[in-house]
Structure prediction request, 223 residues.
Amino acid sequence: MPTRRYFDQELDQLRARVLELGQLVKTELHEALRALEELDKELAKEVIASDQAVNELRFTIEDDCFKLIATQQPAASDLRTIIAVINIIVDLEQIGDKAKDIAEAISQVKRYQKVEQPSALKAMGELVASMLDQCLQAYAEGDIELAKQAASREAEVDQMLETVVSNVIEHMAKAKKEKKVTASMGILGVAQQLERIGDLVTNVVERVIYIATGSVEELNVEP
Prediction:
């Protein structure tokens, strides 16, 4: 088998493994958000347990990348792809970590179920999940414009975070029970994790663009 053809097959398999990791992370995030909405502690435990599979697959892919570099002597464009993949899987794993953090916060939120979750919190969850979907599709298809669309929505996430923070502070100011304050702090923590997921999706988008163009393009840079 010609070396180039073999190496292209290896790169295709690498892409498939990254998308497999992305699917695991997507599922982890969606289940964490469902557990939050339903305050389902058992589902939250399942989410927390599922994070181990994400971590293991990330390290397997990373090992595959190092083996390709060591044994195939990739050309510059191929090396760029492999290095970008290493960065992508780190960010995907961190998104999984944030989903796990959301699941862990559910017991805190559930301590006072009368605390209403701000509507902006659910909207944040739906938005970052949609951004992740777009980002992974862009990676699979090499679609730069779709990748940029995903990253462009980060500003909406930041605005929603501000709304959630305002709502939580208002609730805490009126709170007379310690459990209510604890639940409100849990909601605030979830919102912060969601905002961080938006940042991580943008990181992945930047690597998708780098694979396609060879140029580093830093997106959504704050002044």
About this structure: The helical segments are 3-38, 41-72, 76-110, 119-141, 144-152, 154-174, 178-213. The chain has a mean pLDDT of 90.
